[in-house]
Design brief:
Elements (H helix, E strand, L loop, with lengths): L12 H11 L4 H12 L7 E5 L2 H11 L11 H17 L3 E5 L4 H15 L1 H4 L5
Parallel strand pairs: 1-2
Helix pairs in contact: 1-2, 1-4
Length: 129
């Protein structure tokens, strides 16, 4: 970060808010307080939420042949609460964009690329993403 490099992470504080706050029903203010301590107030420039319906997520999971983890085993009701949390955070938080995650991986990759070019043209505008 100090060197000004681009850092990509597949999870960060927004996941904690969605899973613990919306999924488990913990008070959002308490979760935010804990996150501020844990991250030292570090916030990314952009969160990208790749949204797909729970049914599509379950179908992809089944097709992958990978065993469900502890959280995925919570069931569709829990996962729907988490999804709604992500969407609510996408509507209410600055620096959060929700993209359609449905379709072939190449189509989703194109959507992400277009967003990165739009938001960070100086970094991604001329690159071969």
């Amino acid at each position: 970060l100090a060197a000004g490099k681009v850092v990509l992470a597949d999870r960060f504080a927004l996941s904690t808010l969605a899973y613990q706050g919306y999924g488990r029903g913990l008070p959002l203010d308490d979760v935010r307080d804990g996150l501020r301590i844990a991250t030292g107030g570090l916030e990314p420039d952009l969160y990208i939420i790749l949204d797909i319906p729970i049914e599509e997520s379950s179908a992809r999971q089944a097709a992958s042949g990978v065993e469900l983890d502890r959280i995925e085993s919570e069931g569709d009701g829990f996962l729907q609460s988490v999804r709604q949390g992500y969407l609510a955070l996408g509507d209410s938080e600055s620096g959060v964009r929700v993209l359609n995650g449905s379709g072939p991986p190449e189509a989703v990759q194109d959507r992400v690329r277009e967003l990165l070019i739009e938001i960070f043209p100086e970094t991604f505008g001329g690159s071969a993403l």
